[in-house]
Amino acid sequence: MATSSVPESESDSSCVGSDYAEIIVLRHGETAWNADGRIQGHLDVELNDAGRQQAAVVGDRLSKEPKISVVYSSDLARAYETAQIIAARCGGIKVVTDVDLRERHLGDLQGLVFRDTAKLNPKAHRAFVSRETCQEIPKSTPWRNIMEFPAHDS
């Protein structure tokens, strides 16, 4: 994720003050597990070559934005490497890591190939594909914890 500050004169919006932060949210580049359809969650999987190339393309695009000032990332390798590549392409700006930026812990589904989850763990699969937040994946981060996550200073 990258942030930038854009003066009002350069903004299309007249209802925003001159001092504001623009937040650009990005997902990490591809991993071998993404390519296989394997669920990662909190498991630490590195980028593959395609993911590194994706990060470089995004970094090149963002390097044309003059106000990118910092990149925030989870501490997982795939996110951190994506952030490092982007930051390097944007002039070596700072990367700040925070464990709270990790994606959801997906409990019993982590490490499984998605197409096999219905057969291997039907309850977890139903919860994963459900839009009902009351259905929980066994051993995962509960939705209520995610939705009630308090803001804090790092």
Automatic annotation (TrEMBL):
InterPro entries assigned to the protein according to its UniProt record, in alphabetical order: His_Pase_superF_clade-1, His_PPase_superfam, PG/BPGM_mutase_AS, PGM_Phosphatase
CDD domains found in the cross-reference section: HP_PGM_like (cd07067)
UniProt-annotated binding residues for substrate: 27-34, 78
SUPFAM superfamilies linked: Phosphoglycerate mutase-like
Pfam families, per database record: His_Phos_1
Domain of life, source organism: Eukaryota
A GO term for molecular function: phosphatase activity
Any one of the GO CC terms: cytoplasm
Active site: 28 (tele-phosphohistidine intermediate), 103 (proton donor/acceptor)
Family, similarity comment: Belongs to the phosphoglycerate mutase family.
Protein name: Uncharacterized protein
Lineage of source species: Eukaryota, Viridiplantae, Streptophyta, Embryophyta, Tracheophyta
